[in-house]
Amino acid sequence: MRPATSAGAVVTAPLRWLARATDVPLSAWQRLTGQRGMIALFLLPNMAIFGIFVLVPLVINLLYSTTGGTEFFLSDRPQVGADHYARLLDCGNYLDPNSCRDDMFWIAVSNTARFVFFQVAVMTLAALITALILNRALPGKGFWRAVFFFPVLLSPVVVGLIWKWILQRQGLANLFMVELGLEPVNWLTDRLWAFVAAVGVSVWAHMGFYTLILLAGLQAIPRDLYEAAEMDGTRPFRVFWRITLPLLMPNLLVVIVLSLIRAVQIFDEAYVLTGGGPGTSTMFMTQYIYEVGFANLLRNPGLAAAASILMACVLIVLTLLQLYLSRRSGAK
Amino acid sequence: GEVRMMWYSDGIEGEVMQDLLNRFMEENPDINVTLDNVAYQVIMEQLPIQLASGEGPDIARVTNLKEQAEHWLDLTDYVEDPEYWRTNFGDQFDWMRPDDSDIIPGFMTQLTLTGGFANATLFEQAGVAMPGEGATWEEWVEAATQVQESQQTAGAFSIDRSGHRITGPMISYGANLVGEDGKPAPLDDAAKAFITQLVQWTDEGKNLRDVWVSAAGTTYIPGADEFINANIPLYYSGSWQIANLSTKIGDAFDWVAIGSPCGDAGCTGLPGGAALVGIKYTQNPEDVGKVMDFLAREDIVKEFSERTLFLPAHKGVVEAGGLNFQTEDPSAKAALEAFVGFTGTIMPEANAMPAWRYANAVYGGMVNRISQAMAGEMAVEDIFARIDSDIAEQVAAADQTK
Amino acid sequence: MIRFLTRRRGATGDGHGWHWTDIATWVWLIGGTILMFGPAVWLVLSSFKTPAGLAEFPPTILPYAQETTMLGDQAKPLFEVTLEDGITVTMAELRRVGIVAQMVPPDQPDAEPLKININDRTPVRQMDFATENYTQPFLQFDFVLFLRNSVYVTVMATIITLLTNSMAAFALSKYEFRGRNAVMLLIVATLMVPLSVILVPLYSVVSAVGLINNLWGVILPTVATPTGVFLLRQYMLTIPDELLEAARMDHASEWQIYWRIVLPLAAPALAVLAIFSVVWRWNDFLWPLVVLSRRELYTLQIGLNSYAGELNVQWHFILAMTVVAMIPVVLVFVFLQRFITAGIAGTGLK
Amino acid sequence: MGAITLENIVKSFGAVEVIRDVSLDIPEGELVVFVGPSGCGKSTLLRLISGLDQPTSGHILIDGKDVTRVSAADRGLAMVFQSYALYPHMSVRQNMAFGLENTRMPKAEIASRIEEAARMLEIGPLLDRRPGQLSGGQRQRVAIGRAIVREPTAFLLDEPLSNLDAELRGTMRAELAALHGRLGKTMIYVTHDQIEAMTMADRIVVLRAGVVEQVDTPLNLFNKPANRFVAGFIGAPRMNFIEAEDGRVMGVRPQHLRLADGGLAVTVDMAENLGAETLIHARTDKDQPILALLPGQLTPTRGENLSLVHDPADEHWFGADGLRL
Amino acid sequence: MGAITLENIVKSFGAVEVIRDVSLDIPEGELVVFVGPSGCGKSTLLRLISGLDQPTSGHILIDGKDVTRVSAADRGLAMVFQSYALYPHMSVRQNMAFGLENTRMPKAEIASRIEEAARMLEIGPLLDRRPGQLSGGQRQRVAIGRAIVREPTAFLLDEPLSNLDAELRGTMRAELAALHGRLGKTMIYVTHDQIEAMTMADRIVVLRAGVVEQVDTPLNLFNKPANRFVAGFIGAPRMNFIEAEDGRVMGVRPQHLRLADGGLAVTVDMAENLGAETLIHARTDKDQPILALLPGQLTPTRGENLSLVHDPADEHWFGADGLRL
Ligand SMILES: Nc1ncnc2c1ncn2[C@@H]1O[C@H](COP(=O)(O)OP(=O)(O)OP(=O)(O)O)[C@@H](O)[C@H]1O
Ligand SMILES: Nc1ncnc2c1ncn2[C@@H]1O[C@H](COP(=O)(O)OP(=O)(O)OP(=O)(O)O)[C@@H](O)[C@H]1O
Ligand SMILES: O=P(O)(O)OC[C@H](O)CO
Ligand SMILES: [Mg+2]
Ligand SMILES: [Mg+2]
């Protein structure tokens, strides 16, 4: 028996006892209310917590966005209607942030859009490749997994810092460049490189997370399908495209949706790494919101709330689009 | 009873404070003071929320003094000798109490003053003489540039990326940031002149690009590490850096505090500091008063300053002089003494800034745009209008009340 | 083919010899190790540097400190000095005045000091681990207390997360009911809101239910994480319905089906979520910072962060404590990652 | 306990009507076998009875109580799935114990029932393996074991022996029959095996494309098939149909043909030797295919002419509409 | 193309030796049937030949070339899995086309091959469904279709007809035999069905617990089983064994018993009516069980005494060691 299964047994024995104990009231409930009652029961704890600690604040946030001033509590804040939205959306030309009343907001929006695109693409690909490789029988499996997962264990601030030290003018990276006989690079003060660094570091930090999701998905694909494909004389790439990828689709969808959402919310590590610079070239939405709402000593929480609501709207549309497309393309 | 003090540290002051509190508790066994060491971020971002909802600690060390003045406890009735307080700390009470009020909100645990530091060893190696007292910004930058060229340093000088740091120089140039209505005035020519000059110095590679360009928004970035590593001969920051420079530079080179270079209107640094205040929502103001009394005692203030290498705000302590800062480092000792002296050169406009509600809006508004100009995203002429409108929007939004 | 995806393929497909995919695999693994692990190793090494060592440019990979020698009762730094005649000797510096250092050979402390230009000497350094970065916080920092709080928050939050999320995911993946898509949409939609954005409203809510300065105030708002529901649901969709049907025929209640059939079969996804939950909760910073302002309630991350001041951050302590704080999550990961493969061998179907 | 009644059951998947108006009465304790071509709806019908699927219309009654809306778990039936549906994460023992634990049966009782089932199914040594480590036939036996330990009101068995060898199948068949006799529980049994159907069934239900073609005892079905379809379906090899001039069709089973002069003249296509019998594939002069199952090991050559006779009592006559005359 | 040789194949799962030293020579074009009790290692042997599993020791040769270390994809064989292993995300058509597309076959050719297979397997109307929407038998046919469209060097078929009804099974059997005849490809066929084994096989390999018991043509196996195990395993119902005094055992098949006076006196336990024949379960006075398959529909009552005779030519004699004498 594999060690994992015996480890599993240690965990499951008390769990089974618990199952028996909990089943008494719960099956009574089922008899009383039928399947609908059970559905409600399964959903209740999560949805209750979710409602109180996510939905209610969200609604408050929406109300926030229609109020002004620096006060923190809704009851102390004056109504300003759609002023904040008007301010954010006041633009001569939406493609040119300079023509907007709040140019920082639009700079943040366009930076974020670019960041999301590159980060999600690069990271999904890297996570997929890594998951495929880790799914092979390798000597020291656990070690390799740990290697790629390791950065996920670090807090974003630490991630930002490590890389800042590596990439700064006289950091480790340039030390290596010089050793290799290359010109040092202004990783963090060149507009393009800083953006690349923000994408790269974020991929570095979160890739392990998505790799693990994909790995779990790969493990769930029945082996006999690969065997059938092998008997069909299928070349590896085709197996990948025609068997692995379609069957991995639900997990890939999780990865894409989550990474997209998280990319839009990029903050801590980029903030520590580049602070949004050089200039404003890596200033993203959350930084904008954070600065307007908290960091600026004269804060404007209403404006920040309005910006966050706009951001959430965009995200919802993006996600729906993605779910719709993936459903249409036939993945379950 | 129970007293909670929210405290942040830049160095060892948390340890010193704990030590002092332990002594206090020995003297007053009936009062238990808990020191909650927190990140500065908590003081800046979380404490305001707590205060707004009428919660929070009993005592806090804060820097955003004026903005939150309504939450401070008036200690007048709880301290033994209000007069002692007014005499020794009175000069800064206006920084931390609502306009037109005469409460005793607390006292400054440290005074700070912006000012420059020079790498004496680099100057000496380059054979460049350090400009003397009264030298202008241009002269200092010119001298530093010569050092830069001779010693091949990465830059000639650096100023921390902070609106607070460039405000002193701007005032020295003659800028007036406060309008007649007490609200921020549009940038005047002197302000524009300094900003233009600073951006130009950056473009020329004199002002080390990395510090200002490596962030957007109002993020604070210090240039201390560049100075510590002898990448720049001249560094403009403030008195609080002394302990930091001392530990990290060690014996690597000699450095001196040079005060603030001059402009047309003067040679001022900008004062500031952190205050220890009582919080209005405390359950036992008497105990708070006792703690505050203890910490404000002349000998305690002196000991605190000497051990933490902070400039004291206690008039008695300052006037008595003879502070024996506890450091082995002659550079640090000299710098501390020098800064005590520089307090005399503060211009009244600079002295008014800490008590001005909109100072922070102005600082933030400038930093963001200036760094955009330095990064080449905007021409320097174009940023002035943006700075003015940014500040105006912020002020307008902040002034909305119910 | 299966070998490409499951084990080393080998030139002949049997695990012997080298196929190009093997080479690609190892290149990726080793390259990945350097890239992923390198910075982390560097973090650990850096945590042993003194504040001066941390600020140093260019950085050294290993922590170094200058060697000293005892002259009399004082430690004096050692340098390699290049003398005028080109010979290099090791000397101790008595003192430095400007660009000139007064130096003596370490074995002749009383010799006439030589005046050496500081550009003609380089410090003699040796590896030195600044263990005080670790010991000092342990002494003054209530490490054990903070650790206990962190463990409590992490364990509670993870258990509740796994339980509530998997229950919701089960309902959302294995039952057809009206409003299912609406619930799913709501959940995905709220994924979008970064915590930093709803911080203030959330604070009012938590304060309204009286959980400020309470560890449960840290735990509860995080446990209904949409990420978990979403992740588990997608995985549960791949569990064959027929197994649930078999259980129904076995007279299992819906709760039993959830607990005895679906949960074990979702083990890989649960393990993933458990790992994430532990990492998230362990590293949670912003929210606990808001809710907890009393020392006896601090979690490790909050305690750690008290080294971040207004103008200076004591990185040497933060780094050291970061490394210490990392150890438990590494252990959890190492333990749980096995369950990802311990999942399902075949589906049990024909 | 265990009388099952289907009233006008219809089941559609989307637009496809898979079960079309099936009504059926299964008295308590009866062993009913469902037979029919692949895809005719046998499994679907079982699933409807089990409660795992809901009929599009119609009612299902157990012991006279309408259970159409009662959940599968509460109908008290046990099912052997055609796909086995073993719990992959549980050992064989746990797979079998699961259903019993759900009824809070004492541990000792559970163990003894599993012991008993394992003995009967010859899976004793496999009890601690996981399904993934079993052969096809072993899995199937576990699936059966899981059902029988339950001792339910009624059994639903979907091709439970299809992956077993002849010998084991024989044994298992006898064991299931004995079980049925012992417990007296209703059993619905889907099979493709003629022998199983003939020997085990109290009655056989012949399905075609979602419709019940005939319900009767095995011998009645064999002797008096209601129509050509049933006649062809029941009995292996398949009945020969010889078209008469008047559009009527005469059927005669291959087993009922004998070699004798003066009978039907046929030409041999092929002879398959089954050991004790030989199956002759031949055709009449009108090119109609004829199968004859003759005892012994015969070796007629291709093209050889044979003459086949049969007893007129063994003739079955069907009209042009396919119905028995 | 397609001669397959196994040399001393051993396969263990952990400590369990599942295949023990199997050697076998399958000449090109032969149709070999593997039979044996459930769990004896048939599927495992197929997997070893296919290359999906590696033998613990021994060699596998295809056309004289050692392919033991060649991957399954490169052995050019096709396999029908006992578990079907259909791609759940592809339609039936795509499932069948998949292997062909791998060889870059022109689209038209692919379509026509699928057409042809679908006709033969009667799955034309299902081509655009997903496996999840098929009945068990339909899935099995798709799995067969997937193999035959490939026209590989050799076919490996693991109980390919187990879920089909008798009629379809008969048709499919004939179709597969025809396919074999037409393509002349080697086929290895696992089945539990005696008739399939007897009629289709060029040779039958009888396995027991990972060991080859006998390899021979169907009739030879039937007529001259090498030992008691084979004798009992081949032929259904199972051969009767009657122990003689001297430890030897006499075997006689149930089909070879006739009712006639003066034979073996037995007491009837039960009679199973199969339609054209009746299977009598009886026992001798020494309490040895006896099966007799008698033509016609007999209805002896339980306890009735019968006398059974047989032709001495139909006797099989085995020594105490079980070997044929
Ligand atoms: N992964 C495995 N681990 C351990 N034992 C296994 C494994 N796979 C198969 N076995 C065992 O190997 C033996 C042979 O299995 P195999 O599948 O070859 O049997 P089979 O002859 O095909 O049987 P059936 O007719 O029931 O399909 C069985 O006893 C089975 O339990
Ligand atoms: N989910 C589904 N969607 C559409 N059609 C389905 C679905 N499930 C089954 N069918 C179809 O319903 C018909 C009956 O299926 P069922 O499984 O009941 O057949 P069966 O009689 O059990 O056949 P077999 O003997 O092959 O197992 C088949 O034609 C099948 O293709
Ligand atoms: O992405 P969410 O909202 O599920 O949250 C995940 C963790 O809480 C992040 O720390
Ligand atoms: Mg079926
Ligand atoms: Mg098998």
TrEMBL record, chain A:
<feature type="transmembrane region" description="Helical">
    <location>
        <begin position="239"/>
        <end position="261"/>
    </location>
</feature>
<feature type="transmembrane region" description="Helical">
    <location>
        <begin position="303"/>
        <end position="325"/>
    </location>
</feature>
<protein>
    <submittedName>
        <fullName>Sugar ABC transporter permease</fullName>
    </submittedName>
</protein>
<keyword id="KW-0813">Transport</keyword>
<keyword id="KW-1003">Cell membrane</keyword>
<dbReference type="InterPro" id="IPR035906">
    <property type="entry name" value="MetI-like_sf"/>
</dbReference>
<keyword id="KW-0812">Transmembrane</keyword>
<feature type="transmembrane region" description="Helical">
    <location>
        <begin position="146"/>
        <end position="166"/>
    </location>
</feature>
<dbReference type="InterPro" id="IPR051393">
    <property type="entry name" value="ABC_transporter_permease"/>
</dbReference>
<feature type="transmembrane region" description="Helical">
    <location>
        <begin position="115"/>
        <end position="134"/>
    </location>
</feature>
<keyword id="KW-0472">Membrane</keyword>
<dbReference type="InterPro" id="IPR000515">
    <property type="entry name" value="MetI-like"/>
</dbReference>
<dbReference type="Pfam" id="PF00528">
    <property type="entry name" value="BPD_transp_1"/>
</dbReference>
<feature type="transmembrane region" description="Helical">
    <location>
        <begin position="39"/>
        <end position="64"/>
    </location>
</feature>
<feature type="domain" description="ABC transmembrane type-1">
    <location>
        <begin position="109"/>
        <end position="322"/>
    </location>
</feature>
Automatic annotation (TrEMBL), chain C:
<dbReference type="InterPro" id="IPR035906">
    <property type="entry name" value="MetI-like_sf"/>
</dbReference>
<keyword id="KW-1133">Transmembrane helix</keyword>
<feature type="transmembrane region" description="Helical">
    <location>
        <begin position="151"/>
        <end position="171"/>
    </location>
</feature>
<dbReference type="Pfam" id="PF00528">
    <property type="entry name" value="BPD_transp_1"/>
</dbReference>
<feature type="transmembrane region" description="Helical">
    <location>
        <begin position="26"/>
        <end position="45"/>
    </location>
</feature>
<feature type="transmembrane region" description="Helical">
    <location>
        <begin position="183"/>
        <end position="203"/>
    </location>
</feature>
<dbReference type="InterPro" id="IPR000515">
    <property type="entry name" value="MetI-like"/>
</dbReference>
<feature type="domain" description="ABC transmembrane type-1">
    <location>
        <begin position="147"/>
        <end position="336"/>
    </location>
</feature>
<keyword id="KW-1003">Cell membrane</keyword>
<feature type="transmembrane region" description="Helical">
    <location>
        <begin position="257"/>
        <end position="280"/>
    </location>
</feature>
<feature type="transmembrane region" description="Helical">
    <location>
        <begin position="215"/>
        <end position="236"/>
    </location>
</feature>
<keyword id="KW-0813">Transport</keyword>
<comment type="similarity">
    <text>Belongs to the binding-protein-dependent transport system permease family.</text>
</comment>
<protein>
    <submittedName>
        <fullName>Carbohydrate ABC transporter permease</fullName>
    </submittedName>
</protein>
<keyword id="KW-0472">Membrane</keyword>
From TrEMBL, chains D, E:
<dbReference type="InterPro" id="IPR027417">
    <property type="entry name" value="P-loop_NTPase"/>
</dbReference>
<dbReference type="InterPro" id="IPR013611">
    <property type="entry name" value="Transp-assoc_OB_typ2"/>
</dbReference>
<dbReference type="InterPro" id="IPR003593">
    <property type="entry name" value="AAA+_ATPase"/>
</dbReference>
<keyword id="KW-0547">Nucleotide-binding</keyword>
<dbReference type="InterPro" id="IPR047641">
    <property type="entry name" value="ABC_transpr_MalK/UgpC-like"/>
</dbReference>
<dbReference type="InterPro" id="IPR003439">
    <property type="entry name" value="ABC_transporter-like_ATP-bd"/>
</dbReference>
<dbReference type="InterPro" id="IPR017871">
    <property type="entry name" value="ABC_transporter-like_CS"/>
</dbReference>
<keyword id="KW-0813">Transport</keyword>
<feature type="domain" description="ABC transporter">
    <location>
        <begin position="4"/>
        <end position="234"/>
    </location>
</feature>
<protein>
    <submittedName>
        <fullName>ATP-binding cassette domain-containing protein</fullName>
    </submittedName>
</protein>
<dbReference type="InterPro" id="IPR015855">
    <property type="entry name" value="ABC_transpr_MalK-like"/>
</dbReference>
<dbReference type="InterPro" id="IPR012340">
    <property type="entry name" value="NA-bd_OB-fold"/>
</dbReference>
<comment type="similarity">
    <text>Belongs to the ABC transporter superfamily.</text>
</comment>
<dbReference type="Pfam" id="PF00005">
    <property type="entry name" value="ABC_tran"/>
</dbReference>
<dbReference type="InterPro" id="IPR008995">
    <property type="entry name" value="Mo/tungstate-bd_C_term_dom"/>
</dbReference>
